[in-house]
């Protein structure tokens, strides 16, 4: 006689505050619910161009008196514009701009060194900077630009900061938010051809999907490796909104997504009418992921968060949550940056 025993994954609990959030929920609404968690916190945000999600997120939380906001971005002139906008919202918040160019591993190290030299406890890191579906190009280190900018650079940057943050004497926890996208569905990690054969096999949307899958797996790895040390890490799908991220893309570029979705059987996206979010709605999940106390529950560590709710694993494609792929990606990333991070 053969007996099959099934061990279901614990159900994700949804708090009353969490269940009230909808796709129309605004960043201001979530921030109001999280004002106690925002107050007096130090928050590091990558990518801070005016009009972008990072800048809008910073302005929303500034109203609730964080102690300090660090803006890490490639263009310091744009960061200063955002810093001024933050100061207009809340003059008491300390704002500092740091140059961060995710396309250069050397400069990523320099940015991390600058931040580490501040000896300041960081409460929340939001890896928000990224690019979407450009023509093929490579970083200065020879990495396909989307994988380099969206994953490899943030992987190195975050780990270099962790080496300092974990050594600071504090009982406070650290939350790391990696901005992903439901575009992760377009590609798993291409372990045998992650660099697209130096461009010969390049597809802009497959490359974007790979980089967004990497954001999800990186969050899973951080949760697995550092959850016991007070680190909570989640990935986020912010929804679709009009930001500088897509300013160089034309409608025909987006039309290239359809054949990939059809080939992979993503029927829910066939003929899908895009629901655009307002700038405020688009950062609601940023705020939720960065501050909502419900995510302190261990079962949510490593979660993929959308519409201000952690998503049940049954709704997430396997390549975005597989523990073995997460560990393989960690090892691959260590090899690319030529540095090991053992925790």
TrEMBL record:
<comment type="similarity">
    <text>Belongs to the short-chain dehydrogenases/reductases (SDR) family.</text>
</comment>
<keyword id="KW-0560">Oxidoreductase</keyword>
<dbReference type="GO" id="GO:0016491">
    <property type="term" value="F:oxidoreductase activity"/>
</dbReference>
<protein>
    <recommendedName>
        <fullName>Short-chain dehydrogenase</fullName>
    </recommendedName>
</protein>
<dbReference type="InterPro" id="IPR036291">
    <property type="entry name" value="NAD(P)-bd_dom_sf"/>
</dbReference>
<dbReference type="InterPro" id="IPR002347">
    <property type="entry name" value="SDR_fam"/>
</dbReference>
<dbReference type="Pfam" id="PF00106">
    <property type="entry name" value="adh_short"/>
</dbReference>
